[in-house]
Amino acid sequence: MDEVAPIEHFMPHGMCYLWDVRMLSLHVISDAVIALAYFSIPIILLFFARKRRDLPFPGIFAMFGLFIVACGMTHVLDIWTIWHPTYWLAGGVKALTACVSIATAVLLVRVVPQALKIKGRADLYQQLEELNATLDRQVLERTTNLLEGQAELADLNALLHARTVEAETAARVMKAQEDELKRLATTDSLTGLPNRRAFDDVLDREWRLARRTRLPLAMIMVDVDHFKKYNDCYGHPTGDECLKTIARLLRSNTKRPGDFVARYGGEEFVVLLPDTGSEGAIQAAELLCNAVRTSAIEHRNSPLTDFVTASFGVATVLPQRGATAASLVAAADEALYEAKNSGRNRVGFRRTSPPGAA
Fold it and tell me: What is the DSSP-derived secondary structure letter of residue 306?
């Protein structure tokens, strides 16, 4: 220090009898380091408080920071007053530091009871364990409820499945009943053949199809000869058996899948032959007439032979626009009338007039 300036310029005021360069350096360096540390601590506290805004008692950090800064200023002034006799300023700063110290102490006294209420690590661990136990209990309850809900849902699904099966079964039974009712409504109860109603539906369908495809449609009307006399001779039960036999003969001797045999009413039957011309229809009628004749069903009261016979009326048509299926039925009925007037046990034929206009 002697090389920088004369020693008398660094002579402490009022401390001449204590003058020692090493002691002076010790005081100056120590006060400087302490002041630097005091000024650094508030900065760290401020940074910490800003990062942790959730911490309680934020005012204590501010008071601590102010207290530490004031302490730091006293050490700075201690260095300053070594060469500059500003003792009033140093005393004032120390007085301010004393006030801040007292205020900080008072604040600490007020804060300590509140701080003591803050749970310690053991209490926090215990609280955490209690919270975990409560959470485990809630999870168990909710899991149990969930399992019970799943069980109830499974029961409901099983019940729904059972009800669905019952509904499907009931629907199938109802459909079967409807089909059976429809079959009964369109089936002759005695012979098992389709009845007049079924024949009308099939005739309408085949008529429209023949008109679209421009193919001929044939019909054979069948009437059992002298059937009233058969009933009078053998009785109605035997007459019913006779009609059943003739129905089986007509059905078994009608070969094609599309041919349709039905009971028209009483002792009358009808055969519908799609895509069949006059020659084919007449041959089919002759085959059926011969089948009835050769079946040798006894009929002692018949004026023709000793066996049951039948008369057949054949009609064919090529459906045209404007014509109706009733014209085919009327033509077959007329052909049957001619066969019966010609001696019965034969085939009569009638073509609807004329083919081009039918």
Answer: S
pLDDT digits (tens, 9 = 90+) for 74-131: 888 877 877 777 778 877 877 887 887 777 777 777 767 766 666 667 877 888 888 8
- The helix (run of H) or strand (run of E) holding residue 262 is strand 260-265
Alpha-carbon gap, residue 252 to 274, rounded angstroms: 17
CB 113 within 8 A of CB 57: no
**Residue 309 C-alpha from the chain's centroid:** 66
Report the Cα–Cα distance between both ends of the chain, in Å, rounded.
148
Alpha carbon 287 to its chain centroid, in Å, reads 61
How many Cα atoms are found within 13 Å in the side-chain-facing hemisphere of 306? 1
Asked if 267 is an active-site residue, the reply is: yes
Give, in order, the Cα–Cα distances in Å from 187 to each of 182, 194, 197, 263: 8, 4, 8, 9
- Residue range(s) in the chain whose domain bears CATH number 3.30.70.270: 196-357
Catalytic one of 8, 267, 279, 338: 267
CATH topology of domain 196-357: Alpha-Beta Plaits (3.30.70)
